[in-house]
């Protein structure tokens, strides 16, 4: 049974899944014809995934998971939202790209997979993941337990510095730290707000003026806390990159769209890190 906060978050995601999907044109045909929803940054950090058992945590509706499977990975996607997993399974069948999708709380999945002695050469999580983790240490230790020796975990994430600003670029909030809980009205329609940045298959106006009836609870963590959690889990840092642009989303006003669905600050705003990428590996001598 889910704890009350996790259950509330599941309901918030279930409410928004059909709204997000309404903005994406025929994803199945897009993927079947060789399209990919991935960005170059996570592809580079993951490296060659052909033949790798790859676990995609907090996989949402599955398009990124299937894009990785199309590269030759043997993919398992896990998400809390049953609506998201139902969509992912339907998308897999319709696109003809095989993957396994599991509906579960991420901590429950990590514990059960460890007990079952499952192992993965790659584990990936990306774009709006860390804020849903109530316990960074438990997450990092769970990831470490499932990696094969030499295996790699990759995280692509929105930079917490960006959470210090209002949508019109005014510095207004403390730097996120300590896993402080933050209650929001609900998961919003960021896919619609991105106006195609998160719809590489084609943007459809879809559902408009969505107000999520289910609030959600997020957790605020700094970059140092994230890196430390994986270091303390025994994983070796391979790369930590910061990017002064954001992929796909438009979290601020007046963002400038450039090639590859990258969104930059306007010319009158100094560069600040809006995204970061982390890659850590399990030592090959691990026993």
Oligomeric status of the shown chains? single chain
Proportion of helical residues? 25-40%
H/E element order: HHHEHEHEHEHEEHEHEEEEE
Main sheet: strands, sense, barrel: 7 strands, mixed
Overall spatial form = globular
Helix and strand composition category: alpha/beta
Q: How is the largest sheet built, in terms of strand order?
A: 3-2-1-4-5-12-8
Strand element count: 12
Radius of gyration: 18 Å
Average pLDDT, to the nearest integer? 97
Task: List segments where confidence is low: pLDDT < 50 over at least 5 consecutive residues.
Answer: none
Overview of this protein structure:
With 287 residues, the chain is of the alpha/beta class. Helix content is 31%, strand content 24%. The strands form three sheets. It has a seven-stranded mixed beta sheet, with helices on both faces. Helix 1 runs parallel beside helix 5 (82-95) and helix 7 crosses helix 9 (223-232). The longest helix is centred in the N-terminal third of the chain and has 18 residues, at 4-21. The two termini are 33 Å apart.
